[in-house]
Amino acid sequence: MRTPRLRAQPRGAVYQAPSPPPAPVGLGSMAVFRSGLLVLTTPLASLAPRLASILTSAARLVNHTLYVHLQPGMSLEGPAQPQSSPVQATFEVLDFITHLYAGADVHRHLDVRILLTNIRTKSTFLPP
């Protein structure tokens, strides 16, 4: 955003800064961010039907890059800081990723990137 240049004003004149661009419809006074992190903790089977509305909500808050971290089944309850854990790359996970990218295609302004740091193939899991 460019900073308006101040010009000398006649004595007694009031300087009026340019008004900010209008907020997107339905946002009210919510801020819009350049990038955001969406952590999905709900089991994938119950997330799939709600995926379109989740992406639409995220697209209202983020206007450039949305990073998505899959952590199905993570508990956010309790006093401990939640820790990321490996997620096995099952057909369900791969299918969900495909659906996520397909659903994100509707929001052309949004660059959706799924973080794969915790997605593991079966061979990369350490034995118990």
UniProtKB/TrEMBL annotation:
<feature type="region of interest" description="Disordered">
    <location>
        <begin position="1"/>
        <end position="20"/>
    </location>
</feature>
<protein>
    <submittedName>
        <fullName>COASY isoform 11</fullName>
    </submittedName>
</protein>
